[in-house]
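User: Design a sequence. Structure:
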């Protein structure tokens, strides 16, 4: 039961961090939007390629470090999974659930229906992936997590 609460908390942290990306308006988080949408925003003067790239780096580096740190603490210190296999499987569980959560709850529901993510001047330009596109992206990420889950598991094994 504790694991369920940890996963929910991890997804809440993920949501809060994503929300922080849009402080000052969604235009500050253009890096989350599809390339076609970014090009249109650039063409009407809402931003430029360099600014989008810079903001992405400023957000994604701390975002990844925070999520990795919390994941390692949960798996190693809280759940005491010091063996690589157990740490790997738990890491994979967290990452795969986060992947599904991001695709459905964040992308399709929150971004799709939330006013926060609408950018003034970009009305009529589609920015939500189709269900098919979302499933393809999430499928690729699911395979990638099979490999990348070894990173937090390795850190847990070294530290705990």
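Assistant: Done.
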């Amino acid at each position: 039961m504790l694991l369920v609460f940890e996963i929910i908390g991890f997804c809440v942290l993920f949501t809060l961090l994503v929300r922080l990306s849009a402080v000052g308006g969604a235009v500050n988080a253009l890096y989350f939007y599809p390339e076609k949408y970014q090009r249109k925003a650039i063409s009407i003067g809402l931003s430029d390629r360099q600014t989008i790239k810079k903001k992405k780096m400023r957000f994604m580096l701390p975002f990844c470090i925070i999520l990795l740190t919390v994941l390692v603490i949960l798996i190693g210190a809280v759940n005491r999974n010091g063996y690589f296999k157990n740490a790997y499987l738990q890491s994979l569980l967290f990452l795969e659930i986060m992947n599904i959560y991001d695709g459905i709850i964040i992308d399709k529901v929150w971004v799709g229906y939330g006013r926060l993510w609408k950018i003034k001047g970009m009305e009529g330009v589609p920015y939500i992936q189709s269900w098919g596109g979302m499933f393809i992206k999430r499928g690729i990420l699911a395979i990638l997590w099979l490999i990348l889950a070894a990173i937090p598991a390795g850190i847990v094994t070294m530290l705990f």
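The chain has one domain: 2-159. The chain has six helices and no strands.
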